[in-house]
Amino acid sequence: MSDAAFDPATDDPRTVAEDLVAELREARDALQRARDRVDEVGESELRAVADADDDLTTLFDRYEEEVTGDGDFKTFIEFQSQIAAITEELSEDVRHREVFEEVDDLLQQRRLTESDWEKVRSALEPVRADVSRLDDRDEARDRYEDARFSAERRIDDLADRIADLEDLQRLGDADLDAPTERLRDPIEAYNDRVADAFADFRSSASARDLLAFVAKADAYPLVPFESPPADLREYVDTYPAGAETVGQLLEYAEYSKSKLDHYVDDPDALKRNVSTRRTYLRRLDEEPLTVDWPPVEAETLRFRARELTSVVARFADHADEGETALVALREVRALPRETDYERLRDSAQARAQLGPEERDRLASGDVADELAACRDARERLEDALDEYPGL
Questions:
Q1: Greatest CA span in the chain, whole angstroms?
Q2: Percentages helix, strand, coil for the chain, rounded to the nearest 5?
Q3: DSSP per residue, 200-249
Q4: Model pTM?
Q5: Which residues form a coiled coil (predicted)?
Q6: pLDDT in tens, 309-318
Q7: DSSP of 318-361, one letter per residue?
Q8: Is 68 helix (H, G, I), strand (E, B) or coil?
């Protein structure tokens, strides 16, 4: 079963879960069979055989081509000596010792041919069969761990889907006739005023003061301004051109160096630090200061309004509409306390998010059916992970 992300449009949750449980069961059974095959011989005995086989394989890979046929005599003697050393270092009771001795005898000839190598490989077949017991167990372990991982990831996918469906059901229960303008009007009024205030501040403040304001907003994570690039901030702080507005700096950035020479002390510095940051400066707008519609949950709005109050207050005295933006923000901040906020918010979200298809699925019971199937599937997989624990 593929462990691709859950697709509610095509995947039946219970069928997917059963397929994953079946794969987990089969992988566990395969791992147990592979472990039994190792236990039939013994881990330590198989390791000793595998180590000797690895040593031989390393020598074969290095020397086979050089010592077959009419090769260099010195290389031939060197190869045979190393083969003999492997055999001599084997313990007397090592499994398949007679095979290693036979291989040593086959290779201790005056001249080696392709047929000799075929005999060597044939002789080593019992050894390779034993080594495969360890390899098969490793592969079975990987398969089992992959099966568990697929089940765990599917549980995560189902949890996300369940959360989405629960939200959809909640929105389906919303009162679509609720007076959402009780929330929308104060939020829109604040957004309009803070947009005007910030536009005025942006057009009148020096680039130095504007970027200092944005940098200080880093202390307020719910007001998501992008921090000024370090090189741009350093430029406006240290060069006289930093006293100009951002709009003026952007205009300068379009000038040629020869024309710039009439307006700024160091045209190269402006080109290097401002021209390369035009996209950042152009995108610096009021968006981080606005309140979303439909609105966020009450607790988040309270925290965000508190941070916005601190941030907007930093430039309110320097901008038209600054004080009125703060007054409007206080009204927004009071909404969770002074309105039936969650009911109105649910209604606003339902109007914004529920299209005809979602409403049909809610009315027909498809959402409830899928939610039940997803919950059953998640429980089935969680039970299977308990039954087939990690290694």
A1: 102
A2: 75, 0, 25
A3: HHHHHS-HHHHHHHHHHGGG-TTS-PPPPPHHHHHHHHHSGGGGS-HHHH
A4: 0.60
A5: 14-44, 141-168
A6: 999 999 998 8
A7: TSTTHHHHHHHHHHHHHHHHHS-HHHHHHHHHHHHH--HHHHHH
A8: strand
